[in-house]
Amino acid sequence: MIAIIDYGMGNLRSVQKALERVGAQAEIIAAPEQLGGAAGLVLPGVGAFGQAMERLQQSGFDQLVKRWVAQDRPFLGICLGLQLLFTESEEFGPVKGLAIVAGRVVRFSGPAYQSQDGEPGLKVPHMGWNRIQVVRPHPVTAGVPAHAMTYFVHSYYGVPDDPEWTAVTTEHGLEFTAAVGRGSAFASQFHPEKSGDVGLLMLRNFVSLVRERSV
């Protein structure tokens, strides 16, 4: 079973349905004690970093996620679920994160996003389909074609201190980390559950990883 963390932020049902579509048993849990015998853990989310961290800490999910990743158990973070892994975010902050990935979450800023000579700059939030590039192999990205398209909705992005964390990149005014991965942990800024066949492939790969690790 794959557990999806419900801390009150995110469309959990769409993630659950996508996982079920690729053959997983996925259950939404609202407290760590509901984890049961889950072999995989998913941290989704949309919204403000600080509010999300507060809710994770109040529920005890913060410690669960830290232990889970430290034990190299299959973990998937999505959108805000990626950003929360970082040391801190500048969104209404700085605000401390889970500190699993050393680095900061920063907002898109600079000349590329500002109007110049009557021409509009790139939009923030970065919203819609964008090409990604797998730059470091990970089980979740196995078989993903070059320059595949995935769906993004975000104004902030994570900057790992250690570039070895970066598994996938994309560009929106600058090249940035679109996904991090290490061991059995993977987290994407894009939404695999909204990314068509490519997203389903990644979710299928994650389910396969969960099954391999639970044998």
List the helices and strands and how they pair.
Layout lengths: L1 E4 L6 H10 L4 E4 L10 E4 L5 H11 L1 H10 L4 E4 L1 H4 L2 E4 L5 E2 L4 E7 L18 E9 L14 E6 L1 E5 L5 E6 L3 E8 L2 E4 L7 H19 L1
Parallel strand pairs: 1-2, 1-3, 3-4, 4-13, 5-7
Antiparallel strand pairs: 5-6, 7-10, 8-9, 8-11, 11-12, 12-13
Question: What would you say this structure looks like, in words?
Answer:
The protein is of the alpha/beta class and 215 residues long. The chain has one domain: 3-Layer(aba) Sandwich (Rossmann fold). It is 25% helix and 31% strand. The longest helix has 19 residues, at 196-214. The model has no long low-confidence stretch (mean pLDDT 95).
Q: What key attributes describe this structure?
A:
25% helix, Rossmann fold, nine-stranded mixed beta sheet, globular, single chain, alpha/beta
